[in-house]
What we know:
about 450 residues; nine-stranded mixed beta sheet
Amino acid sequence: MSAIVDFPVKPEARPYVDAFVDHAWEPQRLRDPRQHAIARFAELGFPGRRGESWRYLDLQLLERDPLLPTCLPPESLDAARAQLAELDLVGGGPRLVILDGLYSHQLSSTGVPGGVWFGATEAALAEDRGDLFHAVVHAVQNDTTHPFAALNAAFFCDGYVLDLAPGITLDTPIEIIHLASGAAAGSFHTRSLVTLGAGSRASIVETYTGAGRYWRNDVLAVRLAEGAVLNRTVVVEEAAEAVHLAQLNVRLATDARFAGFALLLGGLRARHEASVTMAGEGAHCRLDGAFVVTGNDEANIVATVDHAAPGGQTRELVKGVAAGRGHGAFQGRIIVREHAQQTDAHQLSRNLLIGRRAAIDTKPELEIYADDVKCSHGASVGDLDEAALFYLCARGIPAEEARHMLIEGFLREAVEQIDDRAVSDHLLHRLGLRLGRLEG
Length: 440
């Protein structure tokens, strides 16, 4: 049953509002937030390039030819199994597969030790835990710069939840695989939650890939209690016609540590956004990443770290490569509140342009209201070192191979910020495959 719309609707939002269905089978405490969220999206509409937060990503294709939400599993799993076989995954630990926006128990193996809850968002909400419900549904903001978080809250069908009791340590990475089968064009809205109790530790490796034309709109909330440690690595290898929008919202308690890495390698439009609040004293955060764009693709990495407590530390290193007519961008913002004394925060963006038609924008920012801090930022955009290229060619290395060696060496520094050698080797392998298809 379609919902009755009695609120103002922006023209570009109309197809998505018309597709909204009032889920009569759901409890009222979930239906009400969904209805509020679709009204919020109708009010906000699509962000324009005139707005500072979204100025580097062109989403007019979603306005001209809408990709409406779907929550239908594919009729066959054959394509998904073939996709999994090609991914060269890390392996060894629990694995959860989300296929066309829905948890696939046939493709997943989610066995975990005691003290850990790991499974689909839909199953977690069905357990009727009030704290978990609130964290999943209400954790991520729906302000004017995040209209797609509101759309996600209205339409999400599934996702994953990882919940560790205090003191639990997972020795092997948990893998989350987001697949698009290519069975039909549409959009997938997944909403997930990771909560780590005091002193617990975990590592997550997420892969996004698929076939066909689709829009993935992903939201993840992370909540780390005192002394908890989470490492999260993301690899985006979406299909050539795909749009990938991902929003990560992290909140760190006292002495908690979060390390996030995003490698953007595929998709017509890709945006990875991380918002981190350093809510507890002595919290540590690493936000690193890299992107490779070519053709007419666009990729954005957006990071905001809000130091709201004393003694926090942030490190950011983002590297980008643009070839063809590709357009990449990094937007980084570090905020230090007045009472967040003794903050230590450093941000660096370095980028390579391959060819005259490629473009990269970089916009690091510091917003400091405290006086006892150590903060810095830097940015550079340049070309390949011609002297280094000549040196390699003079020693018998073919020009194309020498070029790829220099690009991979440039990006390797960012990837090697990952502590887990198996994970960094996996990313370097995926990066090497991508660079083999890079146009000049």
